[in-house]
Every structure is written in structure tokens, then in C-alpha cells.
Fold:
Amino acid sequence: MSYQYIVNNDQLIDYYLKIENSTALALDTEFVRTRTFYPHLGLLQVFNGQYAALIDPINITDWQAFLNILTNSNIEKYFHSCSEDLEVFFHQFGSIPTPIIDSQILASFLDNPLSSGYANLVNKYLQVDLDKSETRTDWLKRPLTDKQCDYAINDVLYLYPLIPILKAQLSSKGYLESAYQECQMVIARKCQTTDPNDAYLNIKNSWQLKGQSLGQLYKLARWRYELAKEQDIALNFVVHEKTLWNIARYSPTSLVQLGTLGLKGKEIRLYGQKILNILSEPVPQLSPICRVSSYPDYKKISDELKQVAQDICTHTGLNQDLLLSRRLINQYVKWQADKKGNQPELLSGWRGNLFKQYGL
Structure:
């Protein structure tokens, strides 16, 4: 199928006029994120079932009309595995498309793996083999080849007919509304932002530190996160988290000692003195990090949840990985122990209805 290659504001406006009354849009992004904090948009693919387009963002300055479509609640937005796409949209435009239907989530309700690839679903439901050889393309490099463009447009040409097939099968099984709810929950979770003050909690093995060492990690992780955002550098390309942990643990007092703990020469030149200054500042008093797996009766509760999930799967045919994950177990155990925060996902929405029905 032919498609339009859009490179300027006028062409984008013309395309907007063609698709403004659509009922649904298939969307995808190609981006580059190797050493940067943010994903950088290289190409935007759109198809409304009639008009397909590749939108080259490099020289486009006026996105307003197109953004009006993306936020039009009367037009469903089809994606496949949308989490990284949402980051692209939020960084590029300051908003995300709505409402979103994700084919990967829909497919997981139909006894497909939780992380089913797009090509596998297209092959299974549309009997089409897609060429995925351009996956590693540098999407910021110009000009793009015909092969690269064909690869990119296929990500929406087949997505548009794929989702109605998935929706029809879900409707016949009575799970369409549940799948829609799951899409909304996943998207809401992906849109949550990290508080710089919580950055230390995302450092591997942070729970092993206590007292002053944990306070040092808190300060260092917050500094690294804020610097990475400000300068658009991937976190581990500022300072690797293992090195950050070592520095927090041993509180060095010289540049030489920083080097023995894993900080590289360039990092010492750029950040060495700043890190030493941070270490010399007052250390906040933090409560030790309690791993959820160490909560009382964690294994007992976990086993009980798994048994209920297995009973649900036996009677419904749903995928157990969809029903119950380690994240959901941890969330439930923590909520049950602390009695704080919102009701866990296992007790809410479609999942909550099933778990309550089967004895939770």
C-alpha cells in the first residue's frame, strides 16, 4: 500500500484534514535512545485504515492540529507494546495519545504470551510474515532508505486490521471490557514519573545499605537523576549504579579513592569534586529499606495467591502470567502488612472481581 512521507508543516496539515474524522488510528514511533535520558523521535507512523503516512519530525514545527487528533477521545489510538512510545510522545509533545488500545495487552487475554511480539501476532492472526531486519536502524540518520520506510509503515498497516480481530475474539469470550481496563491500568502506571528523592530506591541492592551509607546513596542518586534529566544523559552514562553504590558504601574523601571504587577517569574529571562535595554534606536519616520478600508470611501469602491464580486459569483459560506477577504479589503483601495506600490491583477492576470470586 502507498503512503505519504511528510516532512513539513503544510504536508502535516493536509494529512490532518484527511484523518480528522477517523474512528481509529494505528500509531507507532521509531526513536533512538542509546546514551540519552530521553528517547529521541526519529519517525512517526500513522494509518487510519485509508491514509497511511510516515511523519518525519526533523523540520516540523507546528504540531498543534495533529495533537488535537491525538487527544481526541472519540478516536481510538492503536499501539503495540506502547510503553516506550508513551515516553516518546510525552517528551516530544508534553502529552500522550488517548484513548489507547494496546494489541499486546489484548492478545495476552487470548492465551498468548504476555510479551508477544508484533510480528508473531501479525503472522498468527493475519498470516503475514514481516521483515524485521531494520530493527537496529539509526532513525535519526537521513536519508532513510526505501527498505527502512517499508519496515516502519508495516508497523501500522497491519496493526490497524489486527486490533479489530483481537477485539472480536475478546468480545466473544467476554473479556473485551477487562482488556480495556488492563490497557488503562498499564498506561496509567507507565505515565507515573520518578520523584528524584526516590531515585535511590531504584539502585540495585540499595536495601543492603543502612544508616549513613543509605543516606549517602540517597544524596548521590538524587544528584545523578537530576543531572541526567537536565543534560539528557542515560543514568548509567553519568555514573554506573554499581559505582554509585560503592561510593555510598565507603564514603571516599579523595579523587584517588573515587578511582579505586570504580569511577572512571573522565567521570572523575567531570563529577569527582562534585561527588566529594555531596558526600561531605549532612546525611539524611532514613529508615532501612525493607524488602517486600522479607515481610512476615510473604511466602505463605505468595503461594496462596498463586494457587488462586491457578484455579482461575483452570476455569477461565486466562494466562497465569497476566493474572499474577511478582509486582502484583509484592504490592498486595505490602498493602496487607502496612494497611496504607490505595487498594492493590489484585482487589480492583477485572482482576479483583476474579480473585474475589475464586476465594481471595
In short: Residues 215 and 285 are 6 Å apart (CA to CA).
